[in-house]
Design brief:
alpha/beta, 7-stranded parallel sheet, 7 helices, about 15% strand, binds NADP nicotinamide-adenine-dinucleotide phosphate, binds D-gluconic acid
């Protein structure tokens, strides 16, 4: 029995993928044969993204679109379908975080994080599911987080959003599994991207950021993970090899969730 990890002939739409985790996942999917479509909020970032994909030998299609804007998302999905083709694989990757103690966070700030990290995956998934139903297949991958399972100080909005995204993943699985649509999540651990750069900044005395040391002690591999390490799991969840996997959150965290943390020496 041949296991099919190939994405040949498939069109993958990865949101917020000019750089970071989205770029790494899209690049991995391109290596597996997928045609890549991505978006970003600003034209200059889309242009930078297209250039970066080209440098990696990938002929990606870029669109300017704010994923929280339902009208813009519907128009963009229509344009993609017309100009590139129907979307087979959706990766809801675009996301933001605000690290503010809850009682100092305004409701507007809380709502903004929920809007991008939870409402937007709902909006974009809703825009692509009808066409997936028509064509009898589809893959949706939601980028969740350690905060889909754990809390920590200052990330109340982000944890609420990512916890909700875990349940949205399970609900799309429940509602659309009968149409051969698989909706799963990837829960990255701590990844070296611009989003976590503030947590890894060297201190004025040149020492490691306390949070950097904390994560190294919480990760069995004793290191931050790289965006490229998410590509293989994403290709698996985008391929026919995972057709029987649905509603699952695949934690790619180097073992953080399994580990109480490094014992004092
Ligand atoms: P990142 O470096 O901050 O990149 C986020 C991307 O999303 C950027 O391209 C950003 O575009 C885009 N974006 C933000 N808001 C958007 C909107 N309204 N519409 C369209 N695009 C938007 O983040 P990352 O570290 O690669 O993270 C990507 C995803 O993985 C996020 O969902 C994040 O929560 C999740 N995650 C990250 C980690 C980690 O350790 N890095 C771990 C677990 C989960 P702009 O540059 O224009 O803002
Ligand atoms: C933080 C980090 C995390 C990571 C990721 C962990 O401030 O704790 O930004 O939230 O982004 O979500 O899985």
């Amino acid at each position: 029995m041949s296991v099919n990890f190939s994405l040949e002939g498939k069109i993958a739409f990865v949101t917020g993928a000019s750089y970071g985790i989205g770029f790494a996942i899209a690049s991995g999917m391109a290596q597996a044969g997928a045609k890549i479509v991505f978006n970003d909020i600003k034209q200059e970032l889309v242009d930078k993204g297209i250039a970066a994909y080209k440098e990696a030998g990938i002929d990606a299609h870029g669109y300017v679109c704010d994923v929280t804007n339902e009208e813009a998302v519907n128009e963009t999905v229509e344009k993609i379908t017309k100009e590139v083709g129907p979307i087979d694989i959706l990766v809801n990757n675009a996301g933001i975080i605000k690290r503010i103690p809850m009682c100092e966070m305004t409701a507007a700030e809380f709502r903004q994080v929920i809007d991008v990290d939870l409402n937007a995956p709902f909006i974009v998934s809703k825009a692509v599911i009808p066409s997936m139903i028509e064509r009898g297949h589809g893959k949706i991958i939601n980028i969740c987080s350690m905060m889909s399972e754990l809390g920590r100080e200052t990330v109340s909005a982000y944890a609420a959003a990512k916890g909700g995204l875990k349940m949205l993943t399970r609900n799309i699985c429940s509602e659309y599994g009968k149409y051969n649509i698989q909706c799963n999540g990837i829960g990255p651990g701590y990844i070296e991207t611009p989003q976590t750069a503030p947590l890894r900044e060297r201190q004025p005395d040149g020492s490691r950021h306390p949070f950097d040391s904390f994560i190294v002690a919480k990760t069995p591999a004793e290191r931050w993970l790289k965006p490229e390490e998410l590509a293989g799991p994403a290709v698996f969840l985008a391929s026919e090899a995972s057709d029987a996997v649905n509603g699952h959150i695949l934690y790619v965290d180097g073992g953080i969730l399994a580990y109480i943390g490094k014992q004092p020496q």
